[in-house]
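Dear U.,

For the methods section draft, I wanted the exact inputs and outputs in one place so we can describe them consistently. I've listed the two proteins in the order they'll appear in the manuscript figures. Please don't edit the token lines directly; just add comments below if something needs changing.

First protein:
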Amino acid sequence: MTAELVRGQNHPLPGTRLEVRVSAAQPVVAGATLSDDRRKVRGTSWVAHPGAPTLPGLEVSRQAAADHRLAVDLDALPNDAHQVNVLLALPVGVAGPASFGAVAAPFVAVTGLDGTEIASYTLTDLTAESAVVALELYRRQGAWKVRAVGQGYAGGLAEMLTDQGLPQAQDLAATINEAVAQGLARSVAAPPPRPADEARVRATAQGHTAPGEGAPAPQGEPAAPHPVPPQPGPPAPGDGAPAQPGDGGPVNYTHPRRQTSAPPPPPPTVPTAAPGQPAQPVAGDATGWSLEERLYNQVWGMFEDLARTTAAYRSAVDFADSRREQELDKVLSDPRSRIGGAGDAARETARAKHGDLVDQARAALDRDLAQLAAEADVVEPALPPAFADWSSPVWHAYRAPMEIPMAVRLGGLHLPERPDLRIPMLVRLPLERGLWIDSGRSGSDSLADADTLRRLALDSAVAHAARLLAVYPPGEFTVHVIDPAGTGASALAPLVTSGVLDEPPAAGAAGTGAVLTRLTQRVDLLQMAVRGGVTSSLPPDLDTGEHLLVVNDFPHGFDDRAVTQLRYLADEGPAVGVHLMMVADREDAREYGPLLDPLWRALLRLTPVPDDHLADPWVGHAWTYEPPLAPTGSEVLHHVLAGVGTARRTGSR
């Protein structure tokens, strides 16, 4: 059970390989210092920060982000290091709050590598402080403990490092701020030199090590999934990631129960570019314990970069527009200059200045977009199946996995400034919320008729279900389908004929009721076992895998009892591994009035056609979402489902 600490309270640590997770309402810089038995930092080599993110046994995020994951191996620390201090600071020289009193209280948690929380602490009562020591991990009589500190410093990083006995505190604080502002720790080569106000765009987060958060990120996250996460980050952009304005808040790209593996090998080096050519990025060169996690964080970082560089461009254009209007208003306010050559010259000068400002902003944007496009060209082919598009060759060599991945791709995201630059929309596993595949026309500019949209929505749902089945080990993920009127038989055929379903799609009132009753009873049983602490007493034949219920053509064929059960599954199911995927047109459910509003808010809305209905929680961009459909004429979906079906029947991988 998680220990919720208050300031000054400590708690024993059960192991030495840990993660420290940070969640904040605004991007923050996360770092750590090592202290000796006199609580002194012996030098800059004992400080992990964005410019030097790795120490023996310690790895921090390379950039400022709303969500971070700091990796700690206490056994690998230097022998004379007796304490790890987790530091948070607000970035300097970028737009944003100047003190923690102006933002929501940051939250930090110490977790095991399996995501299980050990202790957590909410940093309340901060006012004018711009830097804070959040936690201490300290050694006492051969055992390690964590203490909630919450000691803030109005003088920022320099004052905090000085207080820890570091003589070079001022210089190191300047180095850290410069590393954040310039994005020195990004996993790709820095773009050509540019003005400082443009460079701030690259001061982005690495997902949860670190999209991103929320990129993506993400959380994006969620920028990357939590500029636009995560906590999608990518992505992700996840935990912040794209949000649905007015439709249920931010998409969360993070999940506390992610699977991790051994610490990463030394990061690959960036190949040296030919003279005059930009350096090429390296796929998987972001922070993380495994290649999968590094790729996830890199996607999340791309998501954040795209969000922030686009925000900088749009802000510059808005400024140019505002300045032009002010200058034109000044000309028009003077009767002597409204007519004649002087007035025309003043207006032409204002327009020329506007054009120059916009051209400069566009040049900076194009430079950043070219860098991101080069990164995407390297990263996309390196993605594992769970992250890859259906067109990727990795699906043609599909084999059932042995472990659950940390995230799954649910589509792509792009902005109008560069439609061909698509960032994978990665969502953490297990899913924290269900999915609503919108079969209606609301919010969509598609010219498709209602019947076509319904068919595309179910095709999209089948593609999502197939991907989830494919990325889980055999027997770890079960799909149930409800098709009350049997209208989706053709679209559902790939799931039925491949043998990935334990039973045919349920039809009619009796079949619908049976499936819903069985799943609600499962949720009840698991919740009672978890809350009572008696999970070991569950029936031995109860499978512990995840379950997904795909519901087609809602609300047709559903009575009030079925609606209540669906709401219950949407609210309570994800916590115990039962997830909901609705294929529905919200307009068709208007007859229920506000009864179904909680259901829609509990689900992540996705569309079967490209639509700009997702927004990131950092700068509020409207991102165009593209569903993950297989290429036209491709048999990849059937091929993968056949492999899943074979693996389920034989138990092979």
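Second protein (the one for the lower panel):
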Amino acid sequence: MRHNLLTALGCLLALLGSFSVLSARERVVHLIDFGVKPQAGYSNTAPLNQAIAELARTTSPSDTLTLVFAPGVYEFAKDGAPVATYHISNHDHAPLRSIGINLKQLHNVRLEGMGAEFLFLDRMLPIAVVESSNIELRNFRIDFRHPQLSHVRVEENRGEGGLVLAPICSAQWRLTGQGELEFYGRDWSNRPYVAIAFDGATKRILYRTADIDLSTKGSRLLDEGRILAPNFRDERLKAGTVLALRTYERPNPGIFLSDNTDVRLENINIHYADGMGLLAQNTHNVSLDGFSVRLRGDSDPRYATTQADATHFSGCSGHIDVRRGLFEGMMDDAINVHGVYLKLIKRVDNYTVEGQYMHNQAWGMDWGKAGDSIQFVASSTFEVVGQGNTLTAIEPVDTPTLAGAKVLRLRFANKLSRQLNPSNSIGIENLRKTPSVTFADNTIRHNRARGTLLNTPKPIKVEYNVFDHISGSAILVSSDCNQWFESGQTKYLHIRGNLFLDVLTSVFQFTEAAISLFPVIPQLEKQRQPFYGDGKNGITIEDNVFMTFDEPLLFAQSVDGILWRRNRVIQTDSYPKFHWHQEPFILKGSRGFVKE
């Protein structure tokens, strides 16, 4: 009898579940019906966010809500914008951020752009997706009317007399009372102090230039549109060179993802962002297909796109999949994946420690929760210290709530090793926030610093990409518990079928070779066990083509097991050799290198 009742109950639950699936529906809404329209001089910020809030309130959570834009250009101003306090990893902190399109605590929502352009008039966070699930964004582009990354063309190089410059970007500009070149928009201004030099014809970063210190003090107007900067001198900058002038400010990314599950971005172009193109943190499963950070084409007078990385993933989990994108002109990597080390600053008792966010752009975000698996490393040697442990409680020390905290009190299930005390300089890593990564069929070109920066113990695949004139290393793996505090013990990395075309034309941090595996280890000589790799099949580099003017192909520090096979090297004469490594393979503190 009991068995029959259980069977009947099971059938009833299955029937109810089927009914729920069948009753779920897709609700398609054309936003023009809610006053959202592609009209010059009309701000869509308030009407769009009001429409989203109303539609979310009146749509069943089990339904899919599809928001459809009519084709055209949509302007967004910060007047009437939702505001929020978000601690965005690797960006400048701000008490409040104005948000163009606010998608918070939503489920089963699709935003269909139909090729529309979202044009932002002020300093804003264009799109925020927060505490949501099953979200899809597709078929639109993002740009700013007055990008804060400005451009000038070198009209004449007068040697000791300085440079004659002509602003060519869409931002407004003026000379201050001290003769400094200042760019400005409706609600911002900056005085750049760093220049990135591009070849005027190819849009490639000039060979061996990297970051150029810039001083425009004492400048004067020669005639309409031309400025003499007598204190800006550099013999490498010939007439026709284009300079991207910048500060190191990172106000906002183009798209911000935080504390979500299952987010898909498809066929999206970001032409400019004040920070990263995409910043994702604490998000489980992110898929990018045809997501690009790129110029607008041949008609675009700009040479640079974003102030930092094209895409950046901090403290994420599940799987990150990035395919079929074009990433060009960024001021940093095409993709950067990492966790965040806390520094152990206090041992409270045998089960409790306090840890602190150390980098000034990485605090305030959610670091962990009870049940997370935790690993400890010594920052001087990158040796794993003690056994892994399980977090049982986490609470803020310096703030009333976890949001915005810099110091956290962490309690663990098992007794802590005596080595875990501040005198040993210990980093604390959350192993739950470690995704697997696929980066495939992308083109990365003409950008500053690096192509990819990947740090995670889960499997990484970098396949069938084109790395075209990256000014630093094409692929970098670099965990650091001393400066950036970006975690990730990379064990399984498969680099296959890629084309490396004249990369490493300048010197940036950790750019030791075309592929640089470089954990930052101050006392490498004291390390007993390599940090990266997992034996013979941990790191595999195969079936790639290196077209290179210089020698260094692979730098590996503290790696256990590298298989190098069927890679083709073609020497070019594009530039003179210059790198301090003049051998193809440089191994330090590593073992198990096999070349087939």
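Candidate sentences for the figure legend, describing the second protein: The longest strand covers residues 107-120. Helices lie at 2-23, 45-57.

Thanks,
Y.
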